């Protein structure tokens, strides 16, 4: 990466007695701003879903996943929503307890299950979708359709670059 981007990542600060030091720039660093925006977005949406519909943001993602791909196993749902299998399993178990999703056993192994929404799950999905769309529009207020396309393109590239970082 070019050193010309350093101004976005590092800033010089005074540490005392006129001495200077370099540290992470928190005000103009795109990676920091992205994380902060994502955290605020997630907190706001999570509180809204919990307060209005009694489910978490993760459970909403699973409702969307099961609406898009009925009869999906946890192993396929996990990478699609970006969470580990344990988190997906816990979310699906909660949806099942709420009567919003159910599983059918595949073969003889009770751990191999295909998940789908119940009629109550579809009904809740449809109610939340209306609210979610309004909130998505609010968070993108001031963006043109071209801005959204470019933003999506940049986020995809950012995600690909992040995926390729060494562990």
Automatic annotation (TrEMBL):
<keyword id="KW-0805">Transcription regulation</keyword>
<dbReference type="InterPro" id="IPR000835">
    <property type="entry name" value="HTH_MarR-typ"/>
</dbReference>
<keyword id="KW-0238">DNA-binding</keyword>
<dbReference type="InterPro" id="IPR036388">
    <property type="entry name" value="WH-like_DNA-bd_sf"/>
</dbReference>
<keyword id="KW-0804">Transcription</keyword>
<protein>
    <submittedName>
        <fullName>MarR family winged helix-turn-helix transcriptional regulator</fullName>
    </submittedName>
</protein>
<dbReference type="InterPro" id="IPR052067">
    <property type="entry name" value="Metal_resp_HTH_trans_reg"/>
</dbReference>
<feature type="domain" description="HTH marR-type">
    <location>
        <begin position="27"/>
        <end position="160"/>
    </location>
</feature>
<dbReference type="InterPro" id="IPR036390">
    <property type="entry name" value="WH_DNA-bd_sf"/>
</dbReference>
